[in-house]
Design a protein that fits this description.
Its EC number is 2.5.1.18. The chain is an alpha+beta fold. It has five helices and four strands. The chain has two domains: about 80 residues, 3-Layer(aba) Sandwich (Glutaredoxin); about 60 residues, Glutathione S-transferase Yfyf (Class Pi), Chain A, domain 2. The two termini are about 25 Å apart. The structure holds glutathione. Glutathione (GSH) binds next to helix 1 and helix 3.
Length: about 170
């Protein structure tokens, strides 16, 4: 059975999983969740994803949520095909994990807050709070200063080697 990706096509976390599946040439079927009608908060959905968030995958009955965990699972399971996404050398892998942690802890919360104001609110007919946007843009600048320091020491946030393409 083809891997099923339960998500929302415009949602960043769903796109992360979709991008990883594509890099690995893993066929998948996107099962679009009806956000507008709060399908992700329904008992059927939260029975699988108790936080009521997309995405999750169902691979022949193996269900997994949290986009980064899904991405790692796919990258390891399908390591022999497509783009090599996770280094195998322990030190290179540790630096890759450092990059993943940076993305999760520093980049994502700030950019999500900006996207929430500038993209998601207008989609619901609401106006962005420009004070919040300004605050978050300032916070982002501080984060990007740290990125500059890291990128002065290594080629990419995830290490020195780019993913190996097939
Ligand atoms: N840590 C989770 C976050 C998932 C997440 O924030 N999903 C958003 C869409 S990108 C969502 O479902 N938001 C609806 C909600 O929180 O009610 C993951 O990486 O899968």
């Amino acid at each position: 059975m083809v891997l099923k990706l339960y998500g929302v096509s415009i949602a960043t976390c769903t796109r992360t999983v979709a991008a990883v599946a594509k890099e690995l040439n893993v066929p998948y079927e996107l099962v679009e969740i009806d956000f507008a009608n709060a399908e992700h908060k329904s008992p059927a959905f939260t029975a699988i994803q108790p936080f009521g968030q997309v995405p999750y995958i169902d691979e022949d009955g193996f269900k997994l949520f949290e986009s980064r965990a899904i991405a790692r699972y796919l990258a390891k399971k399908y390591a022999s095909q497509g783009t090599k996404l996770i280094p195998t050398d322990p030190k290179e892998e540790a630096i890759f994990e450092q990059g993943v942690s940076i993305e999760q802890s520093h980049f994502y919360p700030v950019t999500l807050a900006i996207a929430a104001e500038k993209t998601f609110k207008p989609m619901r007919g609401l106006s962005p709070d420009e004070v919040v946007v300004e605050e978050q843009l300032k916070a982002l600048e501080v984060k990007l200063d740290a990125y500059d320091i890291i990128l002065g020491r290594q080629k990419y946030i995830g290490g020195n080697s780019s993913p190996t393409f097939p």
